[in-house]
Amino acid sequence: MPGERNKKQVLGYLLEECSAIHRNLTTTVRDLTRDSGVTAAQWGILGVFAGPKGPFTVAEAARRINQSRQSVHGVADLLSEKGLIEYRSDPNHRRAKLVLITAQGRTLLRKLRTRQTRWTRQVAKDLKIKDINTALRSIRQIHQHLINRD
Asked: Is the pTM of this model over 0.70?
């Protein structure tokens, strides 16, 4: 069917564009974190621990972002060494530790989020909210298909 082939082709173009956007975002985040003392991955994990539903353990953070506990723990240890987070005893668990963001970590997050906001405003300045919402709905729908593909 010509319509089906065209839909598949256009979806392929969209996915290629998403890959290009991902590559550009990776570069942008690296630029935003330059001279901050943290990498893009460390910024991401720091942001998870600073979330409104914390404090929580490394394992809980890993589940929230669909990463392995080991990889999140490795980044958390680096953040701890830098004084951006600290481990505290969890009264609900004998061995697991709660992770809390320090004042230094909050300050760094504010600095990075300010940079991110400036960048986002620049990118969004010529875009229409209607178009952004349409793209967001479509990408979320595609994401759900990918998650449920089994």
From this structure: yes
Where are the domains positioned within the chain? 2-147
- Tell me: the pLDDT tens digits for 68-100? 999 999 999 999 999 999 999 888 777 889 999
What's the angle, vertex CA 146, arms to CA 141 and CA 150, rounded to 5? 130
The C-alpha atoms of residue 92 and residue 96 are separated, in whole angstroms, by: 9
pLDDT band at 46, cuts 50/70/90? Answer: very high
β-sheet bridge partners, residue 103: none
Alpha-carbon distances of 73 from 62, 65, 67, 70, rounded to whole Å: 8, 13, 10, 5
DSSP notation for 81-140: HTTSEEEEE-TT-SS-EEEEE-HHHHHHHHHHHHHHHHHHHHHHTT--HHHHHHHHHHHH
Q: Which CATH class is domain 2-147?
A: mainly alpha
